[in-house]
Specification:
2 copies of one chain form a homodimer. Chain A starts with 9 loop residues before the first helix and ends in a 5-residue tail after the last strand. Chain A is elongated. The first copy, chain A, is about 45% helix and about 15% strand. The model of chain A has no long low-confidence stretch (mean pLDDT about 95). In chain A, helix 1 (about 10-15) crosses helix 2 (about 20-30), helix 5 packs parallel to helix 13 (about 295-310) and helix 10 crosses helix 11 (about 250-260). Chain A is α/β, with parallel strands linked by helices. The first copy, chain A, folds into 3 domains: about 10-55, 434 Repressor (Amino-terminal Domain) (Orthogonal Bundle); about 65-165 and about 295-325, 3-Layer(aba) Sandwich (Rossmann fold); about 165-295, 3-Layer(aba) Sandwich (Rossmann fold), CATH 3.40.50. The longest helix of chain A has 16 residues, at about 195-210. In chain A, the strands form 3 sheets. In chain A, strands 2-1-3-4-5-11 form a 6-stranded parallel β-sheet, sandwiched between helices. A 4-stranded parallel β-sheet of chain A has the order 7-6-8-9, sandwiched between helices. Chain A has a two-stranded antiparallel ribbon with strand order 10-12. The relative contact order of chain A is 0.11. At the A-B interface, helix 4, helix 5, strand 2, helix 6 and helix 10 of A face helix 4, helix 5, strand 2, helix 6 and helix 10 of B. The structure holds a DNA duplex.
DNA sequence: AACAATTATGAAAGCGCTTGCAACAGTCAC
DNA sequence: GTGACTGTTGCAAGCGCTTTCATAATTGTT
């Protein structure tokens, strides 16, 4: 295949193997239906010509594109990156191509990217950030395409959701810190629906267990290291110094720890800190950061399972798939 | 468009607007060739039907897919993430869909992903990691597709390269540290071609300026925070303590600073540190990290320019586009 | 007023696959 | 030997667009 000459077509492979194009197509997409001997001849012809199927043509003819759109808020400093990587890997291994779009926080961009995905006739749209706009949710619901929401577990999924209960995660963290004897938690809450929900779960449980209402600071998403530093400084504005800071992401936790130490406040002796997302860095930080782990690989696997069932024409009964979350206790709290 | 009913086709829009399908196609792809009044009617019909073109069909018919493959090593802890984001944004805004594949360090995966991209008949393949395998480079060279290498600036690009000279970046850092009065640099060098080249540039300049040969530690890619911590501990094995550690990435620099501070070694008073990549975190760290900035947005813009020229059938004369790099002097060195 | 040049549109032939249908050759049970 | 299957293959009709070529309508030129 040189820069000038055209790529070989199915027809050429067929001629070389002495069969019809239809049979070659069957061999490629469904090898078990062609006779073993024929298959061998076809494979030889494929190898000889260096044939690579034109999947655009295939998609058009079969109305199955094997193209999956993943819409994520960002990748520069995302807490989802491990999950995104796992998803891309699994999808690729399962014979799909992955289109990646960055939505930021802008609903109009999201809409444009949904349209772009639909124009490619993707088999599925994977959402990592949460779609809050009701109209967009309705539109997605009406689409002839599989929509998988990940990380969250909304009451009314657009189609299928694979994630965990954020309020349960908050609840678990409240119990954990309570049992460790902390008494004055301070929450640093990114202004995203899911973070808010975790905070809600935390506060509810905390007060049910007899604690005082925690103080809190809201920060903008995407959350990042720098916010942690600023958040530490803001602690001085509180009526009393907290004994533990519950951060909405590991980045914030890391920034906060760095700033605390620079200010001579020892972590966790003087101030405990927890993060969220269990990034690799959390285990490497000094002190290591207590965090909440989400099994991104598991989310990816469940996603493949759902996609396969859909492709096989089965009806999905379980529309909310809970993969849970786990507190990873380390040195920082 | 409900879950059951088919998407509207060009033909339907055409009928509604009272023109032929050809004219609608022209309006969509090349609006200036259709009469203004006709265009208005067509747009109304598009809006009414909610028509979204089937780009797979379009790609097949025009043999231009407007699909771009970007192959990156990873996204979880990548120093390229800002560049990748900028590229995805620019490509999307320019009417393309972006396929993202993760190559890891495995050449076989890379080959599989190149084939996947070719099967989609992508208009271009964007490489972020460097392709070292000679056979793969030759294969890519022979392909009827635009190949853009980014970040690096190889002597013999596969097709077009947009990046900067890593050895020049190393050279500049050597001058910078020398002029600041440092005398015993220690290099932490990820085992990637480009990092090695930076180290090479550094050492050459350093010794030319009369310095002693720097000590060095090789670490595996992808580099990450944890390596920085370990690298600090390894400093005790050196014959003499360095006065500055030149790290192959900001992650390593950050990890090293954290570990140094935990050990009571003040940065930069006792030990200076530099990073690479100028991640947002570098400016937020305490102390802020002296780093090398690469203008990812610029790389993305140049990429679009090249792609456009290719699409217009022009011959690209400038096959190595140097966007340079800049030392960002901060507190850590 | 006649002609050339320009602009706007339509008809129709693909682009390279997939797949329903039909045909044919074997296999098997009786 | 016959009929009913089963397994394997080919034929041909699309999938929904783009684009060449031809034609019609308009404008400009002399």
């Amino acid at each position: 295949m040189s820069r000038t000459q055209r790529a070989p077509r199915l027809e050429e492979v067929a001629t070389l193997a002495g069969v019809s194009a239809a049979t070659v197509s069957r061999y490629i997409n469904n090898p078990e239906v062609v006779a073993a001997a024929t298959g061998l001849r076809i494979q030889a012809a494929i190898d000889e010509t260096g044939y690579l199927p034109n999947l655009n043509a295939g998609a058009l003819a079969s109305s199955r594109s094997r193209l999956i759109a993943t819409l994520v808020p960002d990748i520069a400093q995302s807490i989802f990156n491990d999950t995104i990587e796992a998803m891309i890997d699994e999808l690729s291994n399962d014979g799909n191509s992955v289109m990646l779009s960055l939505t930021g926080a802008d609903n109009n961009r999201l809409i444009a990217q949904i349209n772009a995905a639909l124009s490619r006739r993707v088999d599925a749209i994977i959402l990592t950030g949460i779609v809050t706009d009701a109209e967009t949710r309705d539109r997605l619901r009406s689409l002839p395409v599989t929509v998988i929401e990940t990380w969250g577990l909304p009451d009314e999924p657009i189609d299928v959701a694979i994630g965990f209960s954020h309020s349960a995660a908050g609840d678990a963290m409240a119990r954990f810190l309570r049992s460790r004897g902390y008494r004055r938690p301070h929450l640093i809450v990114p202004n995203s629906t899911r973070s808010q929900r975790r905070a809600g779960g935390f506060v509810r449980r905390w007060m049910e267990e007899g604690g005082d209402e925690p103080t809190r600071l809201e920060v903008n998403v995407p959350s990042h290291f720098g916010q942690g530093r600023l958040s530490f400084r803001a602690l001085t504005d509180l009526p009393a110094m907290p004994d533990v800071v519950v951060c909405g992401s590991d980045w914030i936790a890391q920034g906060l720890i760095v700033e605390a130490q620079a200010a001579g406040v020892r972590v966790p002796d003087k101030l405990a800190v927890t993060g969220f997302g269990n990034l690799r860095m959390a285990g490497d930080m000094r002190p290591t950061i207590t965090s909440v782990d989400v099994d991104g690989a598991r989310i990816a696997r469940e996603m493949i399972r759902v996609l396969r069932e859909r492709a096989a024409g089965k009806t999905i009964t379980e529309r909310r798939i809970d993969v849970g979350s786990r507190i990873i206790a380390r040195e920082s709290a």
